[in-house]
Write a structure and sequence with these properties.
Low-confidence stretches: none
CATH class of the largest domain: Alpha Beta
Helix content: 25-40%
Number of strands: 13
Number of helices: 14
Strand order of the largest sheet: 1-9-8-5-4-2-3
CATH superfamily of the largest domain: Type I PLP-dependent aspartate aminotransferase-like (Major domain)
CATH topology of the largest domain: Aspartate Aminotransferase, domain 2
Number of domains: 2
Radius of gyration: 22 Å
Bound molecules: pyridoxal-5'-phosphate
Length: 433
C-alpha cells in the first residue's frame, strides 16, 4: 500500500470487492421456480400461501403474534397508521433524521408529521424532545431504529402509554435486532420493516407490519387488500382500501432470507466490533456509544461521527470521497434533515393538513448529522472476514495520516458527495425513456 491517497492518484487500499449483496443460492432459485410453476403468483387471496407463512414466521422471530407481508416498507408504515385510526388533522411525531418515507407515511393518511430532533449518541429520536412536542392533537410516535442503534424504547413506551399514543416502530434498519431481549417491532404497538434491496433481508421490494393486536392486524389486511374484511369474524368496517399486497415471488424469497438472518446478524455484530477496535483511537472520529440494552445488534449501516475541526479541517464529504476512492463503499449525506430535503418537496395544497400546520423547524443534531458529521458504512462490508474489516480500518488510518493532502483540495468526487440523494441518483441512473 502506498501512502499517496487514492483520491490524489495513489493506489487504493482495497481493490477487491466486498461481499456482494443480496446473497442467494439454489434455495431462492428453487423457491422462485416453484412459484412460477404453481401459477399462483399474486398477493390475492390475501394473504396468499407464501405470504401467510412468511408473515407468521417473521413475526414469531421478532416476538410478535401477527405479521402481514405487504408491497414495501413505506406502505407498511401507512397501513399501520391507517389501521390505528390515524386520520386527517392528527399529528404524528417522527424523527427529523430518517428516510423521507417515515414522515411521508403520516402525510399519506392525511396526518401532519411533526419533526423532532435526534439524540447525538444514537441518531435516534430524542425522548425529551418527543415529550415537549406532544399537543392535544398528537396521536402517534414513529421512532426509527437507525443504522445500528435502537431508539430509547423504555422511555418512548412510557411516554406513549402516558399520553395514549400509538407507538409504531420503523424497523426498516433493524431486522433481527433485539432491545432488552425483545425483538424489534414487537416493543411498541406495531412494527414496520422494509425488504427493499439494500435492507438486511430483501426480495428487491417488500414490507411487513408486525403486531400483537389482532384487531390492528385485521385492519392492516383490510386496507392492504382493497377494503375486504380480513376474517369472517373480523369487525365489519367497510371502507376503501388499496392494493398493497405482496406477491408470492417476494414471499418465497423472503422465507429463505429469513433463514439466513441469524447467522448474518451475528457475523455483522462481530465484524462491526472488530472495526471499532481498529478505529476507536483515530483523532477526529467518534463512535456512537454502545447501549447495553441492545442485546442483539442489527447492523444495516455502521455509523460513526466525523469532526472536521479535529480532522485537519477537511469536510466530511472530502473524507467520504477519499474513503470511497480507497475502495470502501460509504456515504455521508445518506439521510438529511427531512424537513430540508429535496425529496420532501410538495406544495401546501397537495397536503392541506400540512399546509394548514406549517411551522419552522430547527433540529441541529439532524442537520449536523446529515450535512457535516455522519459517515455510513453498508452492512455487506461486515459479512466478510476480519481482513475485510482490517482494510476498512487501514483506509481510514491512511486518510488520517495523509489528511494534509486533502486540505483545500477539491474535485468532482468531493463535489458529488455534497449533492442531495435525489441529485446523485439522477447523476448515477440511466435515463428512464
Ligand atoms: C427508515 C426507513 N423507513 C422506511 C423506509 C421505506 O421502505 P421502502 O423503501 O421499502 O418503501 C426505508 C427504506 O428505504 C427506511 O430506511
Amino acid at each position: 500500500m502506498g501512502s499517496k491517497l487514492a483520491l490524489r492518484g495513489g493506489n487504493p487500499v482495497r481493490t477487491e470487492p466486498f461481499p456482494a449483496w443480496p446473497i442467494y443460492d439454489g434455495r431462492e432459485a428453487l423457491a422462485l421456480q416453484r412459484v412460477l410453476e404453481s401459477r399462483n403468483w399474486g398477493g390475492y387471496p390475501c394473504p396468499n400461501d407464501n405470504a401467510r407463512e412468511f408473515g407468521s414466521r417473521f413475526a414469531e422471530y421478532h416476538g410478535a403474534k401477527y405479521g402481514i407481508a405487504v408491497a414495501n416498507g413505506t406502505v407498511s408504515l401507512e397501513l399501520a397508521l391507517g389501521a390505528a385510526g390515524i386520520k386527517a388533522g392528527d399529528e404524528v411525531i417522527v424523527p427529523a433524521y430518517t428516510w423521507e418515507g417515515t414522515a411521508a407515511a403520516a402525510l399519506f393518511v392525511g396526518a401532519v408529521p411533526v419533526f423532532v430532533d435526534v439524540d447525538p449518541d444514537t441518531y435516534c429520536i430524542d425522548p425529551d424532545l418527543v415529550e415537549a412536542a406532544i399537543t392535544e392533537r398528537t396521536r402517534a410516535i414513529i421512532p426509527v431504529h437507525l443504522g445500528f442503534r435502537f431508539a430509547d424504547m423504555d422511555r418512548l413506551r412510557a411516554i406513549a402509554a402516558g399520553h395514549k399514543l400509538f407507538l409504531l416502530e420503523d424497523c426498516a434498519h433493524a431486522h433481527g435486532g433485539k432491545f432488552n431481549g425483545q425483538g424489534a417491532g414487537s416493543i411498541g404497538d406495531a412494527g414496520s420493516f422494509s425488504f427493499q434491496t439494500s435492507k438486511l433481508m430483501t426480495a428487491g421490494e417488500g414490507g411487513i407490519v408486525i403486531t400483537n393486536d389482532i384487531d390492528l392486524a385485521d385492519q392492516v389486511i383490510r386496507i392492504a387488500n382493497c377494503g375486504r374484511p380480513a376474517r369472517r369474524a373480523s369487525r365489519p368496517n367497510p371502507a376503501l382500501g388499496h392494493n398493497y399486497r405482496m406477491t408470492e415471488f417476494q414471499a418465497a424469497v423472503l422465507l429463505h432470507q429469513l433463514e439466513r438472518l441469524p447467522e448474518q446478524t451475528s457475523r455483522r455484530e462481530a465484524m462491526t466490533a472488530r472495526l471499532e477496535e481498529g478505529i476507536r483511537d483515530v483523532p477526529g472520529l467518534s463512535l456512537l456509544p454502545r447501549d447495553p440494552r441492545i442485546t442483539t445488534q442489527a447492523s444495516y449501516h455502521y455509523v460513526f461521527r466525523f469532526h472536521s475541526d479535529a480532522f485537519g479541517g477537511i469536510h466530511r464529504n472530502a473524507f467520504v470521497a477519499a474513503l470511497k476512492a480507497e475502495g470502501v463503499p460509504c456515504d455521508g449525506r445518506f439521510y438529511e434533515a427531512v424537513y430540508r430535503s429535496s425529496l420532501f418537496n410538495f406544495t401546501a395544497e397537495q397536503y392541506p393538513e400540512w399546509g394548514a400546520n406549517l411551522r419552522e423547524y430547527d433540529c441541529p443534531v439532524a442537520v449536523r448529522a446529515g450535512y457535516d458529521e455522519s459517515v455510513w458504512l453498508p452492512h455487506e462490508i461486515f459479512l466478510g472476514n476480519e481482513s475485510d474489516v482490517a482494510d476498512v480500518a487501514a483506509a481510514i488510518h491512511k486518510i488520517r495520516e495523509n489528511v494534509e493532502d486533502l486540505v483545500g483540495f477539491d474535485n468532482e468526487a468531493i463535489r458529488i458527495q455534497g449533492l442531495s440523494r435525489a441529485e446523485r441518483a439522477l447523476l448515477e441512473s440511466k435515463p428512464p425513456y
